[in-house]
Every structure is written in C-alpha cells, then in structure tokens.
C-alpha cells in the first residue's frame, strides 16, 4: 500500500511525531513486512508512506486496529490536506521467498 499526502502548514512536527509512533507500532506486527515513511526533499509538507503486508487479511486487520484508529483516523487525518491524499494498493507480480520470511 502506498500513500502520498501533504500536511497542513504548521502541523509538520506533530505529524512527524505521530508517523514515527505509527511506524514503530506497525513494525511490531508480524503480518506487516515493511513500513516506511519518506519526506519530499523539495516539498517539506509532502510525504510518501509504503507498507507491505503478508496478505489482504493483514491489510484489513491493520486498518481495523486500535493503533490505526488512534494515530491515523483520530490524530493524523486532521493534519492532512485531504485533497492531497492518494492511497493505492498493489498486488505483487513476483513472489520472492526471502520477502516472506
């Protein structure tokens, strides 16, 4: 899953703290293989998040989790320029065993 979004001016520091907490919590979930957030080098309010799940059930579980509700829906979502939010999910074309360990 990828997400691209911009933070409302003045909320960057608080949003980065929330994203750090969310990523740290997400990385403890064995069904999430990868969770990273990147900040644009040219547009300081623009971010890109990438999460890789073991399967669709893991993605659904993540979206329904208490920490997702707390960090994303309750706190972070209010700091986003909602018109900038793009969320995409993808299916892998190739499966490599070392990614599934």
TrEMBL record:
UniProt xrefs under Pfam families: ABM
InterPro entries: ABM_dom, Dimeric_a/b-barrel
Database matches in PROSITE patterns: ABM
Domain ABM: 1-89
Entry protein name: ABM domain-containing protein
Provenance organism: Dictyobacter formicarum
């Amino acid at each position: 899953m990828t997400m691209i979004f911009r933070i409302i001016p003045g909320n960057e520091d608080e949003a980065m703290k929330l994203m750090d907490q969310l990523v740290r919590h997400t990385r403890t979930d064995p069904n999430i293989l990868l969770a990273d957030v990147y900040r644009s080098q040219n547009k300081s309010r623009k971010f890109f998040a990438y999460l890789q799940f073991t399967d669709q059930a893991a993605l659904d579980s993540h979206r329904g989790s208490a920490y997702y509700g707390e960090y994303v829906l309750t706190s972070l979502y209010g700091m986003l320029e909602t018109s900038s939010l793009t969320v995409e999910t993808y299916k892998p074309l190739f499966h490599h065993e070392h990614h599934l360990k």
